[in-house]
Write a structure and sequence with these properties.
Shape: globular
CATH superfamily: Lipoprotein localisation LolA/LolB/LppX
Order of helices and strands: HHEEEEEEHEEEEE
CATH class: Mainly Beta
Strand content: 35-45%
CATH topology: outer membrane lipoprotein receptor (LolB), chain A
Number of domains: 1
Strand order of the largest sheet: 6-5-4-3-2-1-11-10-9-8-7
Helix content: 10-25%
Largest sheet: 11 strands, antiparallel
Oligomer: single chain
Number of strands: 11
Number of helices: 3
Structural class: mainly beta
């Protein structure tokens, strides 16, 4: 997702010829493998995300409603917090079609995925925030990856990054953890830390798999 992440095949090749920490590709992490199997079997999903972002002294708390349809259709609606009533649609490529809330909701504007009007406080894009891409980051980022039993019917996967990201939305992040529901196999929570300080927290609820989303839900 971020600049610290590379395809596992490239990272594994690099690991064979250097002493750098190996990529956390998750081959022995059952929770990640189970999620990937579930995701491969569905066509679409919807989910509600409560997101907490911290950047320096600034804090952003938002609630989003996400829709995703394979292979590359995504929609995000801000249902609470700064920008409430706004949202965006992505149909592949490097641009998003977005609108603001309130009286401006009728006017759509196509902007770069990384335009500050289309990202979270820290700069996460609509693509970054898709659950499958959140999980993929644990496979594709260098570091130490472990799975341990969590509470409340979850399994916890923790990644200690080999080095903090130097740029992008993950800049400064040193550790991240994701909790997977034992019932659904899908993530229900994630936290990223900068040292001992929380950088981001996400909680996923109201998950619906194979909701039968029509293409009209993703009008660009």
């Amino acid at each position: 997702m971020q600049s610290n992440a590379l395809p596992c095949s490239l990272l594994l090749a690099a690991a064979l010829v250097s002493a750098a920490p190996r990529p956390a590709c998750g081959a022995t992490v059952p929770a990640i493998t189970a999620f990937e199997g579930s995701f491969a079997r569905i066509n679409d999903y919807t989910v509600t995300t409560r997101a907490h972002d911290v950047l320096g002294t600034a804090v952003q708390d938002r609630t989003y409603h996400f829709l995703f349809k394979k292979p590359n259709k995504a929609r995000i609606d801000i249902v609470n917090g700064p920008g409430r009533g706004g949202g965006g649609v992505w149909n592949g490529g490097d641009r998003v079609s977005g609108h603001r809330g309130g009286l401006l909701s009728r006017f759509r504007l196509k902007v770069s995925l990384h335009d500050s009007r289309a990202t979270s406080l820290r700069g996460y894009t609509i693509i970054d925030a898709l659950i499958q891409n959140e999980v993929a980051q644990y496979r594709n980022t260098r570091g130490e990856l472990i799975q341990k039993r969590g509470g409340g019917g979850t399994d916890e996967v923790e990644l200690k990054l080999a080095a903090p990201a130097l740029s992008g939305a993950d800049r400064g992040v040193t550790r991240m953890a994701m909790w997977f529901s034992k019932r659904t196999g899908w993530p229900v929570r994630q936290i990223r830390w900068e040292g001992n300080k929380v950088a981001t927290e996400e909680n996923w609820t109201d998950l619906r798999l194979d909701a039968g989303l029509p293409d009209g839900d993703f009008a660009f």
